[in-house]
């Protein structure tokens, strides 16, 4: 019986000792603080990334507005230079060379404006694509495709 009590006391001592070491060990405390710092750093990094994405989105919008305004200004200058100086030779007009190649930056369509219909991703009937048959779109089918009403 004394041997049983000795084993029980020995195991209890091991458990109490392990618990005491765990609670008083500096590395466990350090691990907990490092874990907290890591979580905090991850959160701050995620916030920074989101701010960066927002910044670039806003910058892109501003640059788009600048491009549109520049295009409008350039069109205005080109138009007024030809209106105010109609007899000016083309080589003396600084806008003459670029007027023909100038593409206006188009504004994005607003909600109330109609949007062109997206192209269909299918053909009328079987095309024979996988059978090796050569089929062509007839003029009637072309006319039918162009005659379909556009979505508004």
Automatic annotation (TrEMBL):
A GO BP annotation: cell division
Residue ranges, compositional bias (Basic and acidic residues): 139-152
Keyword set includes Transcription: no
Gene Ontology CC, one term: plasma membrane
Regions annotated as coiled coil: none
Region annotation (Disordered) ranges: 103-152
Topology class, membrane: Single-pass membrane protein
Cell compartment(s), UniProt: Cell inner membrane
Keyword line: Cell cycle, Cell division, Cell inner membrane, Cell membrane, Cell shape, Membrane, Transmembrane, Transmembrane helix
PANTHER family: INNER MEMBRANE PROTEIN YHCB
NCBIfam families xref list: PRK11677.1
Family according to the record: Belongs to the ZapG family.
Protein name: Z-ring associated protein G
Record organism: Photobacterium angustum
């Amino acid at each position: 019986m004394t041997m049983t009590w000795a084993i029980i006391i020995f195991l209890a001592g091991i458990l109490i000792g392990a618990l005491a070491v765990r609670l008083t060990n500096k590395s466990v405390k350090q691990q907990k603080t490092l874990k907290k710092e890591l979580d905090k750093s991850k959160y701050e990094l995620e916030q920074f990334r989101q701010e960066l994405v927002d910044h670039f989105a806003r910058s892109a919008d501003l640059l788009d507005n600048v491009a549109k305004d520049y295009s409008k200004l350039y069109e205005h200058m080109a138009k007024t230079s030809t209106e105010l100086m109609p007899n000016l030779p083309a080589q003396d007009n600084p806008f003459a060379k670029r007027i023909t190649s100038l593409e206006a930056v188009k504004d994005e369509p607003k909600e109330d404006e109609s949007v062109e219909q997206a192209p269909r991703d299918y053909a009328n009937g079987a095309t024979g694509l996988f059978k090796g048959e050569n089929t062509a779109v007839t003029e009637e089918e072309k006319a039918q495709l162009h005659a379909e009403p556009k979505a508004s």
